[in-house]
């Protein structure tokens, strides 16, 4: 009987290794396939103009050059609005919108998750229902509201709507349901802690992966915003809008446009690489994987 158990155990371990190896090999190959568009974009940024238009097209660059990046900075330096102004607008909108979104989503999620009040279920159902609507569907109502408030051609037209993203509220609420025991909050209340103190010193540290994920999603969304519908003043436009104007120069600026696309990708990619483990943990706990 002992020999049979050992044999079964060894065969089970061996089979498990083969399965794990197959899974990791599949994920590795699939990851390489997912990287192909990014590699192609970076390769185009370093291609001379004549090499970009080779037929059949070549995936990798043969004669790398920095001319596309030099042309990009030369074009931006000739603009009547300084390039630094576009950068400041983008950084300010991204930072303010992200901070407000994380704080507001966390506060609302804490109330929905850990407090009981009439209409709680209906309110959360409306939040979930709002996830079904794309930005194109709500674009006209959003513009009408912003125009009514007098926010057109101001930073508020982009920053304030970013506070109310329903995806952030959903993620935070689901994560708090899973990761914050009610007994811990009740113990803090019995010790005399206020709700505000409980939220900042107990709840928020326990859901750190969730709000780090919100930061990543918010940065990715706001960093690439063009805001063409809400902002007409050139001095308030974002970096994405300024770089997109380069592509309007036609075929001659194809290489410059590729360099601009690479620059726009750098910040979201760096932020994602740093915090990718937190995103996976949040998605698993919030139920998004289902």
Structure description:
- The protein has 290 residues and is mostly helical.
- It has 2 domains: 39 residues; 220 residues, MetI-like fold, CATH 1.10.3720.
- 73% of the residues lie in helices and 0% in strands.
- The longest helix is centred in the N-terminal third of the chain and has 44 residues.
- The protein is globular and about 70 Å long.
The largest sheet is: none
Query: What integer value in Å does the Rg equal?
Result: 25 Å
User: Percent range for helical residues?
Assistant: over 70%
Number of domains: 2
Report the sheet-strand fraction: under 5%
Question: Please, what is the average pLDDT?
Answer: 81
The H/E string reads HHHHHHHHHHHHH
Supply the number of helical segments.
13
By helix and strand content, what is the structural category? mainly alpha
CATH topology of the largest domain: MetI-like fold
Q: Give the CA-CA distance, first to last residue.
A: 42 Å
Number of strands: 0
CATH architecture designation of the largest domain: Orthogonal Bundle
Shape: globular
Protein traits:
2 domains; MetI-like fold; MetI-like_sf; membrane; disordered C terminus; cell membrane; 13 helices; 290 residues; transmembrane; mainly alpha; transport
Quick structural overview:
It holds the Pfam family BPD_transp_1. By secondary structure, the chain is mainly α.
Topology:
Elements: H1 2-45, H2 49-52, H3 67-77, H4 83-114, H5 120-130, H6 139-149, H7 156-163, H8 166-179, H9 182-190, H10 195-206, H11 208-223, H12 239-244, H13 254-286
Helix pairs in contact: 1-13, 3-13, 4-7, 4-8, 4-11, 5-8, 8-13, 9-10, 11-13
Subcellular location: Cell membrane
Protein name: ABC transporter permease
Family: Belongs to the binding-protein-dependent transport system permease family.
